[in-house]
Amino acid sequence: MEHPTAVQNPGPVLEATNLATLCGSAVFFLLMFVYVAPAVLRKVFPQYASLPASKRIIMDDAFDHPLVRLGAAIETAYEFLGLLLSLSIPALRLPSFIFHHALVSCMAVVQMIYKCSPHTHNLGFICMTSNVFLNNRTLLNGVGKGNTKFAMWNGIALAVVFFYVRIAMLGVEWWHVYHMAMQPGYFQNVPFLVFLVDIPCNFLFTILNCYWFSKICRIGWKITFGKAKNN
C-alpha cells in the first residue's frame, strides 16, 4: 500500500515556521548590516569613519561573513547527524563514511567559530551541490530505476559536477592556502584550530574527494564498457 503523501501530492507549501524563520533572519541580518557592523568597524578601525559612504557600505556587509558562518552552523549539524547515523546503523557503518563525516564535522565547527578563511567555508558549501545528484542516484537505485535514461543522465551530471566542485575547485582552495601560509608570521600567529583546517584537514579532504571521484569514474567505466561488452 502506498504512503498517502505519494498519492495526494499536495504540491509546494509555505509553512508558517519557515515564513517566521525567513522574516526573523531578514531582521537579524538587517540589524547586523545597519547597526552592528558600522559600530564595530568604527571602534576597531578609526580610519573607517573618514571613508566615503560608498566604501563603508561594502565593508559593513562583508567584514564578518555572518551568513557564511551561519551556513557552517547548519552544515555542522548535518554532518554530526551523518556521523551519528554512520556509527549507529550497521548498513552505514563504513570506515569511509565515518571518516568523511568526522573530518567534515571538525572542519565545519572551526569554520562556524572563527571569523577567518571565508574561502574555506564557501568551498565546503560549493562541494555540497554535488550531493543532489549523488542522493538522486541512491534513490533511483533503491527503487529499481538505476538503469533508466534519467539515471544515466543523472550519473553524467554527478560526474561533471563532482569534478568541478570537488576536484577542480581544490586548486582554487590550495592557491588561497599557499598564499596565506606564505604570509610572514602565519605559523606563529594563526590559531591552532584554524591551522588544522587550513592545511592538515584540507589535505585529508583533498585525498577523500579524489577517492570518491575515483569510485565515480570506476562505476561509470564499468557501466559504459560493461554494456558495450554485453551488446
UniProtKB/TrEMBL annotation:
<dbReference type="GO" id="GO:0016020">
    <property type="term" value="C:membrane"/>
</dbReference>
<keyword id="KW-0812">Transmembrane</keyword>
<protein>
    <submittedName>
        <fullName>TMEM56 protein</fullName>
    </submittedName>
</protein>
<keyword id="KW-0472">Membrane</keyword>
<feature type="transmembrane region" description="Helical">
    <location>
        <begin position="192"/>
        <end position="213"/>
    </location>
</feature>
<dbReference type="Pfam" id="PF03798">
    <property type="entry name" value="TRAM_LAG1_CLN8"/>
</dbReference>
<dbReference type="GO" id="GO:0005783">
    <property type="term" value="C:endoplasmic reticulum"/>
</dbReference>
<feature type="transmembrane region" description="Helical">
    <location>
        <begin position="19"/>
        <end position="45"/>
    </location>
</feature>
<keyword id="KW-1133">Transmembrane helix</keyword>
<feature type="transmembrane region" description="Helical">
    <location>
        <begin position="150"/>
        <end position="172"/>
    </location>
</feature>
<dbReference type="GO" id="GO:0055088">
    <property type="term" value="P:lipid homeostasis"/>
</dbReference>
<feature type="domain" description="TLC">
    <location>
        <begin position="23"/>
        <end position="218"/>
    </location>
</feature>
<dbReference type="InterPro" id="IPR006634">
    <property type="entry name" value="TLC-dom"/>
</dbReference>
<dbReference type="InterPro" id="IPR050846">
    <property type="entry name" value="TLCD"/>
</dbReference>
